[in-house]
Design brief:
mainly alpha
């Protein structure tokens, strides 16, 4: 067993070795870029899981409510074209597109932040794709949060925290893509 002093020395030596190894060949802005990338990964993970869970729960509640609507309706066409069914399918469609864009952004920002064995040309393409994904995600998030869901589909259930997380993820992706493109 090691005593406490020896363990502290070993821990500090490991910390210094990791710090020295991680800062070799790094430029000044790499630390900030890495922090923004990790922030974007965390925010997009929250958005992706939230949208996925929302779709699953929404689908289950739709199926539960579908049985009650079926008893009230006489034929299948009036059931499928009812206002409630169209609003539910519309909301699920908006969330599905949001989910797919969030997954794409999560993949792009993850590849750009932790490139692994990718070459510099592939990193450049990845940054361009990240910027494209970030702009599309930002547009869709803004349109769906402030126009589609509240005005078209009459869904006002999202709180301020959810909106800030979604817009923060969009901002982190765009900021990361712009900084990465300027640096390369």
């Amino acid at each position: 067993m090691m005593n406490r002093a020896a363990r502290r020395r070993m821990d500090s030596m490991v910390w210094y070795a990791l710090r020295a190894g991680s800062s070799q060949g790094c430029e000044e802005g790499d630390d900030l870029l890495w922090v923004i990338g990790v922030l974007g990964i965390v925010l997009h993970t929250l958005c992706t899981t939230g949208a996925g869970v929302g779709m699953v729960i929404g689908f289950v509640f739709f199926l539960v409510g579908f049985g009650e609507m079926k008893n009230k309706s006489r034929n299948l066409s009036s059931l499928l074209l009812s206002k409630d069914t169209l609003m539910i399918v519309g909301t699920m469609g908006v969330v599905l597109v949001y989910f797919l864009l969030s997954c794409w952004n999560l993949k792009m920002i993850g590849d750009a932040t932790f490139p692994g064995l990718l070459g510099s040309a592939i990193r450049e393409i990845s940054v361009r794709q990240l910027l494209t994904a970030a702009v599309l995600y930002t547009l869709w998030t803004t349109i769906s949060l402030y126009w589609l869901l509240p005005r078209v589909l009459s869904f006002d259930g999202l709180g301020l925290k959810v909106q800030l997380i979604a817009l923060g993820a969009a901002g982190a992706s765009i900021l990361y893509g712009i900084i990465k493109m300027v640096m390369t």
